[in-house]
Amino acid sequence: MNSIIAVLHPGDMGSAAGACLAAKGERVIFAGEGRSEATRARARAAGLEDCGSLRACVEQADVVLSVCPPHGAVALARETAAAGFRGIYVDANAISPEHARQIGAILTEGVAAANGGAGAPHAEYVDGGIIGPPPRGPARARLFLAGARAGRIAALFEGTPLQPVVLEGDIGAASALKACYAAWTKGSMALLAAIRVLARAEGVEMALLEEWKRSQQDLPKRSETIVAHAHKAWRWIGEMEEIASSFTSAGLPGGFHVASAEIYRMLEGFKDRREAPAMDEVLAALQAKKRR
User: Fold this and answer.
1) Is 283 strand, coil or helix?
2) What is the maximum span of the chain, computed from C-alpha positions, in angstroms?
3) What is the DSSP code (8-state) at residue 278?
């Protein structure tokens, strides 16, 4: 018997993940109520069925897959718990391990309490983290999973472009892996962009690029990677803040990624722009705050 999976909410990554399941014959649903027409159209094109409200989804679903902006992850978990969800809740958002554990408590303890306390029906929780692009066509990504029911969720995605990987660690392990990975990939991208701005402001940008070509040959090209991602840099503000929180919780300075969040916030003007900007446009946007 196939499962019913609710994807909350089907943005670019969520709709692609849902499409992987729909292609295997699973029934995949979403809550279109309050969503934009673009979101609803994207979800329908991916083979997802609009059930209207979140409560309607929760009442039908065996599994809830949460793929939303990091700042909304806890609130969405609370809303799902309040609706009485009793299946398996998979949080696949870019959140800190601490927030992953908080969400696990909301789903497992909160729902049990709402249904009469210990021993009452309650949800189960799987901590998830996605690394890679939205899994469409040849593009593949990994879905890291941790928790007692991780194997059950992995089985749903077996053979799809979203390759499941079950981790041996406790709840928080998948979120920690995602945070560590993005701390470098997205954090270093922001750092390199900031270095280019500093060098330009001090009149040594060309000299820096020439020295990089001699001694750090990959850096000139890597320092321009941000232009291809400027249109979605706004999505990474919350993720950088979650990574900063992860560092702080581990007793480490979180300032690296607080600064990265600010770099990406300064690029919000490129939000959803179809054509990649020139590097000069990106650097100018980062210099604009100083001029103000």
Assistant:
1) helix
2) 68
3) P
Q: How many CB atoms lie within 10 A of CB 275?
A: 7
- Cβ burial, residue 206 (10 Å; 0-12/13-18/19+): exposed
Contacts of 115 (CB under 8 A, 6+ apart): 84, 121, 122
Q: Round to whole Å and give the CA distance between 175 and 67.
A: 13
Residue 9 · residue 18 · CB < 8 Å: no
Q: Could you give the number of structural domains in the chain?
A: 2
Cα 262 from Cα 260, distance rounded (Å): 5
Q: How far apart are CA 198 and CA 191, in angstroms?
A: 11
**pTM: predicted TM-score of the whole model, two decimal places:** 0.92
Same domain? 109 vs 144:
yes
CATH label of the domain that carries residue 103 = 3.40.50.720
pLDDT digits (tens, 9 = 90+) for 46-94: 999 999 999 999 999 999 999 999 999 999 999 999 999 999 999 999 9
Supply the CATH number for residue 197's domain: 1.10.1040
The pair of structure tokens assigned to 102 is 């908080």
